[in-house]
Amino acid sequence: WTNDKKKAIREAAFTAVAAGGSQAGMERLFEAFAGKKDRALAAEAIAKWPSAPLTERLSVRFMEELQEALQQDNTDKKKNENVWTGIQPYLTALEEARNSLLDQVYSFVIQNYEKFIALGWLPLLDQAAYYEERAASEQGLELLRELEQRNSRYLPHYFRAAQQLLSAKELYKQFGGTMMSRLKSKVSKEAAK
To answer: What pTM does this model have?
Structure first.
């Protein structure tokens, strides 16, 4: 059924396969993800019925495709859009997932902020910020601090992550008083650009 001509039938079949949780079903979902045609349908099913082994395999492919995307000539707008269309389903399928491979993926994304923002892949950067915010780790907090320094859009993520890790005194020291003046300065700088 996952190879049916009708999209609605394939979508229902992928959902049923993911819900079943069998090894053969997970293999079929991974195959669908490897192809471009049904990647979005498979991503929706995986998001509804996550599987840790499948998530790990997709995390590896996600990193590979992101690295390939940065290696390509991204001046061709149409080609960039096609690559982005292939990346987007990963954001859907892995939105709520957590594993050490995804830690590396999102760290890579944040460290390559300038390259991904130049491609116009803001949703990828937003997902990375969301992931690191929920990580509640010192490394995640540091990555969010770097991201917030590059774009004030990520200040809420940085603040919420800091709330999870810092004491009230440290939080006030970091964000109180001068934070408002820093925020006004950043907003005026970004508006001037």
So the answer is: 0.82
